[in-house]
Specification:
The protein has 11 helices and 13 strands. The chain is of the alpha+beta class. Strands 5-4-6-7-1-8-13-12-11 form a 9-stranded mixed beta sheet, sandwiched between helices. A two-stranded antiparallel sheet has the order 2-3. Helix 3 packs across helix 4.
């Protein structure tokens, strides 16, 4: 008889800082590069379909929250939703693209914000997919009987990368004050916020819980160069030695190597690779589309959703769009936190009933990664 236990998500929580910022005011909130509006930015907003989003910066560029602080607030909300407190928590896995510090790890700082008591922690630093990396660690810790209460949390403070001073005076801005596309698009794509889920070995009494059937993580980094990165120039990103080839941080900044960047031509190839991984899961019987009642697929833009749908429609792997749930228009792309913010909103929508199966898909453009989590609602 196996010693492994079933694991259930018994609570979810989300935190979104500040009042919603409409897309029309977004660029003024972040600040205009060289004082002028971005032509690419306006197109990006049409592509991504985001109407409002949240920032942990006020209109003067001052931080209202830390990255770890937002994550701690989401963790507390998830624990409260599960009927638990910080004192019940045994294992904390925390994910982000970039924490408040270069060192130490994100989970240590989230624990510091949470307080409570000594506990086991694990930090996961990637891009959007780090949420499911943390979730798998939390799931396995409960499944293997090491902990009875584990939390997977994720948070992002992307807006602090997007202030004009991050780009002005660097190689990313040309003589006319125009920002390179690799940087400009992301300014109009990413939002701030946090989300978390609580995992336990039994369902929550008197309400719906989500049994975790599996969490599969697939890296394709052996096939692709970095697609979304920070720490290297656009030209030097394919050479790991070039990321440290600058004479100090000021030189790296001047070269545009400190900014968050993305290669959009490569992204088009990565999208096809994500879909290929999903279709292999379908062919293997790991995912049976007809048995999926709800799909929560993280994507950064409505145009990317359209691309994914167009690739799937001619296959046996297509899940009808009426089964898809997204809150992208109201919260934007919250990076690693997106899937937990989305799951929390989905549960609040009241569209779930016992026996329903929920597939969560988190693709990541960082260096071509995609994760899958299958859940079943139990009463």
């Amino acid at each position: 008889m196996s010693d492994l236990r079933e694991v259930f998500i018994t609570g979810t929580g989300a935190f979104l800082p500040g009042a919603p910022v409409p897309s029309a005011r977004m660029e003024d909130h972040l600040g205009r590069i060289a004082g002028r509006g971005s032509l690419l930015g306006r197109r990006a907003l049409r592509w991504n379909g985001v109407e409002t989003r949240h920032y942990a910066l006020d209109q003067q560029g001052r931080a209202t929250h830390s990255n770890a602080g937002m994550c701690a607030l989401a963790v507390r909300a998830a624990l409260e939703n599960a009927g638990l407190g910080v004192e019940d928590l045994g294992f904390l896995a925390a994910a982000t693209t970039q924490g408040d510090y270069l060192v130490p790890g994100h989970a240590a700082n989230v624990h510091g914000e949470l307080g409570g008591r000594p506990m086991e922690i694990a930090s996961f630093q990637s891009v959007c997919g780090s949420s499911l990396m943390a979730a798998k660690a939390a799931w396995l810790s409960v499944r293997a009987r090491e902990h009875d209460v584990a939390v997977a949390g994720a948070s992002e403070f992307s807006s602090r990368w997007f202030r004009p001073a991050f780009y002005e005076g660097t190689a990313l801005v040309d003589a006319k004050g125009r920002l390179r596309a690799e940087a400009d698009y992301l300014r109009f794509t990413l939002s701030d916020g946090a989300g978390a889920v609580v995992m336990e070995p039994a369902p929550r009494p008197g309400g719906l819980s989500l049994k975790v059937e599996f969490i599969d993580l697939v890296s394709l980094a052996d096939r692709f160069d970095p697609c979304m990165w920070a720490g290297a120039s656009v030209e030097g990103r394919t050479d790991p030695l070039a990321t440290w080839a600058f004479e100090g941080p000021a030189a790296a900044h001047a070269a545009g190597a400190v900014a968050l960047l993305q290669d959009f031509e490569l992204l088009k190839r990565v999208i096809r690779a994500w879909v290929g991984v999903y279709l292999r899961k379908v062919d293997e019987g790991r995912i049976v589309p007809d048995r999926v009642d709800h799909l929560l697929c993280h994507y950064s833009a409505r145009s990317l959703r359209d691309e994914i749908v167009s690739l799937l429609e001619a296959t046996a792997g297509m899940i009808p769009e009426e089964k898809w749930f997204s809150n992208l228009p109201t919260v934007g792309n919250v990076g690693a936190a997106s899937i937990w913010v989305m799951l929390d909103a989905f549960l609040e929508s009241g569209g779930l009933k016992p026996g329903d199966r929920v597939l969560c898909v988190v693709p990541e453009s960082g260096r071509a990664f995609v994760g899958f989590m299958m859940l079943e609602a139990v009463g």
